Amino acid sequence: MNKLSFDHIFMNLASDLAQRSHCIKAQVGAVLTRDTRIISIGYNGPPSGTHNCDEEWPEVGCPRDSRNSCSLALHAEENAILYAVKNGAKLEGATLYTTLSPCLACARLIFSAGIKHVFFQHSYAEYKGLPSDEGVDFLNKFGVKTEKFTADFD
Q: Does 52 reside within a domain?
């Protein structure tokens, strides 16, 4: 009998979490783990206690910044990292599973938090129409193994 690997389970969870997002442009989920245990989860959206984009701006979404990104929301990786830090979780050596490869700003946070491995499902560069995945390039350059997720079984 083939069983899902933990990588597969955590990426499935990240995909499920993405569905919690109130963003009307893109739904992204993230899961932080260490040693097959979940440390923290997150999905993209405005800071807790503010508003929900799909409720306040259901037709167009929240205001955009100069790079045509949401000017109000935290990315899924940011939410997962912030929640973990807020609750005293140790992130050194953790693995991050995310449905969209990290942008450059999130990559800097991931590196600074001591996360050592990142799996992503879809390319941020393809989503944003950029020539390369700057966040992935940054992480790989500085020793954080970052790779596109491929389904596997144990």
A: yes
The reply to whether 120 falls in a domain is yes
Task: List the catalytic residues.
Answer: 77
pLDDT tens-digit series, residues 97-143: 999 999 999 999 999 999 999 999 999 899 888 899 999 999 999 99
**What CA–CA distance (Å, rounded) separates 149 from 99?**
9
Residue 23 in marked binding region: no
Give domain status of residue 88, yes or no: yes
- Is residue 70 annotated as involved in ligand binding? no
Model confidence pLDDT, tens digit, residues 95-104: 999 999 999 9
Residue 37 makes CB contacts below 8 A (sequence gap 6+) with: none
Q: Which domain holds residue 13?
A: 6-148
- pTM value? 0.90
CA distance 130 to 151: 26
> Is 62 labelled as part of a ligand binding site?
no
Residue 154 lies in a domain: no
